[in-house]
Amino acid sequence: MSIFLYLxxxxxxxRQHIIATASDLFYRNGYxxxxxxxxxxxxxxxKATLYNHFKSKEDICLAYLQxxxxxxxxxxxxxxxxxxxxxxxVLAVFDFLSLFFKEKDFNGCWCIKTVSEIPKDNERIRxxxxxxxxxxxxxxxxxxxxxxxxxxxxxxxxxxxxxYLLYESAVAESHLHQENWPIMQAKNxxxxxx
Length: 194
Hints:
Layout: H1 3-29, H2 36-43, H3 47-53, H4 57-81, H5 87-102, H6 110-115, H7 123-147, H8 153-177, H9 181-193
Keywords: DNA-binding, Transcription, Transcription regulation
Protein name: Transcriptional regulator, TetR family
GO molecular function: DNA binding
């Protein structure tokens, strides 16, 4: 391996380490409650190293949101596709959420937590979160199209948005109540509408 490739690999690893550390802190403690110095300390890096990779806390937040979203997207797609074709693949979004809820560090939706902490005029972070939510709706719509006999694209899109709202409310309410029943009730409602 050339020295150039080695240095690129090391730089990418350091960047990923910073993102993983910031992700843990932002998700657990919140965006506003996590300072740059805490990220530096927890990462075990120098301040200059952090600023070599990120210009601002907002840039770290965007990387955090993308990091969480990429893992979530990969995991939910793999989980749903492992289920039997048909209604089971659509309902699997709630089974996936139930598993997510059971993780020891479950702390609700990272997007909703973040958007509740940013100023209303922070378009960069808000746009990233909106994009991620649109991608989730598109994924649900794709599940519907592949697994249910829906007459039109418009009906499929409408049903996807309904399921999305059930999913999002189940995330928030399971976090609030620290119980699984909101997820199970959302799945029951979903089963009636599909």
